[in-house]
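Methods, example record. To illustrate the input and output format used throughout this study, we show the complete record for Iron uptake protein. The sequence lines were provided to the predictor; the line carrying structure tokens was produced by it.
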Amino acid sequence: MLLIGSFLLIFIGFIHSYFGEKYILIRLFRRDNLPKLHGSDWFTKRVLRFAWHLTTLAWWGFAAILYFLSSPSGDLRSEVLITITVVFSISGIVSLLFSRGKHLSWLFFFGIASTSWFSVIYS
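The corresponding predicted structure is encoded as:
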């Protein structure tokens, strides 16, 4: 059953990112009345885009956790923590690059990734 849930999360992630980009974000970004943060709507558009796609990434992380839970190994804790490390590392990279460091979420994402990774190493 958990494998079905894992598959559904992967599938819905693809659907969410593809159709969200095609039918929501692109249409939203054509508007001329978006809030102007840091002097223009560029930052607003970048934050909306990376936040939208980070949702998909988070769902894929949950899919990996469901996969590991479907047939637990002797080191389930490490598998889950490594999954969290990967998801938040990628989230940090995406946030850092897409916002050119202006959206400070990357600091927190890297902090979460680091604490998860150190928990794997030192346990």
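Annotations derived from this record:
The two ends are 30 Å apart (CA to CA).
The helical segments are 2-29, 42-70, 76-98, 105-121.
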